[in-house]
Design a protein that fits this description.
This protein is an alpha/beta fold. The chain has 13 helices and eleven strands. It has a seven-stranded mixed β-sheet with strand order 1-7-6-5-4-2-3, sandwiched between helices. Strands 8-9-11-10 form a four-stranded antiparallel β-sheet. It binds pyridoxal-5'-phosphate. Pyridoxal-5'-phosphate binds next to helix 6. The modification N6-(pyridoxal phosphate)lysine is found at residue 296. Its cofactor is pyridoxal 5'-phosphate. One of its GO terms (molecular function) is carboxy-lyase activity.
């Protein structure tokens, strides 16, 4: 009986092996050959029933059929790696990232402790040290891989509270963000028990950067009112415009006031790895903590974020906890128990994919891939500058460009409508994934140009197509 069970396991493995060999090339094609695929494909109510049927468990099915079903389900997704997908910051993924992820997933290393995952633990620690070195943090620095920027920001707010607010004073603490700060910061603060009234949204300057003078004034006013300012959240690359707050000036304010400086570098911290633009992020060295997403401008698959801290002991002080049954699993400074550095106990290996990508393509090409985003946005801005009726609302910064179509004979309200219509048409015709956002109350189009496989000439072509679409939409609106 034992041997027949053995042979059936072997048969099953043999057949899995064949399946795996066929699925990898198919996946590579499906995930890389995107140019002619739809940018967005959203399931409509008429698709739901079919999708629900595919989703429902039941008797065993042929594995190849289930794989086909998985492809059918994945049809309904935005192709975030599409060369002309410019609607969101998370965009192109490197094939090496997902291959690395496949490896990590197959080994399924438990990355919570040194006992269970010392190999991947060293990789995680080495990646953290390498990234911390790139942004200029000192040798005391540390960090932890997390699900993403939202989690990084939440943990950073807990660190700032634990290390800068006296015990029992949470209700009098005040947090300073800019009006351009990512909403995940407020969300994290609410989750850890702060009230919205404890968050000050400091106005930004003409370039959408947090104004350090207004910051100082707000801190002064709060101190006079008996409150306890304890953390400033600065951005290195805002979501709307790619603005970098004046980190050095803000750090000086924090130093003077004894406040924690958290920098949200979810995507912008990646510029520190670029070949020619790393000087832009020099101010990151002043941060007490930095959130950074590898699943944005480091071309990794999702759920790959990093929280870096100036002093790794702060992580342990805030997040280490004890379960009696974990007493035999001890970490050390070289391989910490990462379950003591954040929220998660059971956690997967998120670092291997980044290590794998960097090892395969090397630091130089990686840096060039980041640089390319700068060049793309600058080329698009230059091309727009040649056309009439277009206004650059926020110039190319960190691969983001915001602009709008403003024909003279229309009103503000009509401009807003026109730009929404242009975006819809660009998507409907699969020309480019360019959506709208609002800046100072007006609707603008926004390009996030991060994809290393989009050529500089191609992005110029997208701008020309956009101009054609804008004229068409304008005529339709004028004759309606
Ligand atoms: C994307 C982003 C976040 C949120 O990160 P997630 O990984 O999506 O949770 C926070 N801040 C900034 C500036 C971002 O660009």
């Amino acid at each position: 009986m034992g041997s027949s069970q053995q042979s059936s396991i072997e048969e099953e493995l043999d057949s899995l092996c064949i399946t795996l060999q066929s699925i990898l090339p198919r996946l590579l094609t499906a995930s890389l050959n995107l140019n002619s695929q739809p940018l967005f494909k959203v399931a409509q109510t008429s698709d739901y029933e079919h999708l629900r049927r595919l989703s429902t468990p039941g008797p065993p099915s042929d594995i190849n059929q289930v794989i086909d079903d998985a492809f059918a389900i994945a049809e309904f997704r935005a192709r975030m790696s599409h060369p002309r997908a410019m609607a969101f910051i998370p965009s192109a993924v490197s094939p090496y990232a997902w291959l690395g992820d496949v490896l990590a997933s197959a080994f399924n290393t438990f990355a919570g402790s040194r006992l269970q995952g010392s190999g991947s633990g060293i990789v995680e620690k080495t990646m953290i040290d390498w990234l911390a070195g790139k942004v200029g943090l000192p040798g005391t620095a540390g960090g932890v891989f997390v699900s993403g920027g939202s989690m990084g920001n939440l943990l950073a707010m807990a660190l700032a509270r634990d290390h800068r607010l006296p015990r029992g004073q949470q209700a009098t603490g005040v947090v300073y963000v800019s009006e351009q700060t990512h909403h995940s910061v407020s969300k994290g603060l609410r989750i850890i028990g702060f009230h919205t009234s404890q968050i000050r949204h400091i106005p930004s300057d003409d370039n959408f950067r947090l104004d350090p003078i207004k910051l100082s004034e707000a801190i002064r006013a709060d101190r006079d009112a008996g409150l306890l300012p304890f953390v400033v959240v600065a951005s290195c690359g805002t979501t709307n415009t790619g603005a970098i707050d004046p980190l050095t000036e803000i750090a000086a304010v924090c130093g003077r006031e004894g406040m924690w400086l958290h920098v949200d570098g979810a995507y912008g911290a990646s510029a520190s790895l670029s070949t020619t633009h790393s000087h832009l992020t020099a101010g990151l060295r002043h941060a007490d903590s930095i959130s950074w997403d590898a699943h944005k401008w480091l071309f990794q698959t999702y759920n790959c974020g990093i929280l870096l801290v100036r002093d790794r002991k702060t992580l342990l002080k805030s997040f280490a906890s004890q379960g009696d049954y974990l007493r035999d699993a001890l970490g050390d400074d070289d391989v910490p128990n990462f379950w003591d550095c954040g929220l998660e106990l059971t956690r997967g290996d998120r670092a291997t994919r980044l290590w794998f990508t960097l090892r395969v393509i090397g630091e130089k090409r990686f840096g060039d891939m980041i640089d390319h985003g700068f060049f793309l946005a600058e080329a698009a801005e230059e091309e727009l500058g040649k056309l009439s009726n277009w206004e650059i609302v926020s110039p190319a910064s960190m691969a983001i460009l915001a602009f709008r179509f403003v024909p003279r004979d229309k009103t503000d309200a009509q401009w807003n409508e026109l730009n929404v219509a242009i975006s819809k048409r660009l998507v409907a015709e699969n020309i480019a994934g360019i959506l709208t956002t609002k800046l100072r109350g007006v609707v603008v189009l926004r390009m996030c140009a991060f994809n290393p496989s989009l050529g500089v000439d191609e992005i110029r072509g997208v701008v020309q197509q956009m101009d054609r679409v804008a004229k068409q939409v304008y005529l339709e609106h004028s004759s309606a």
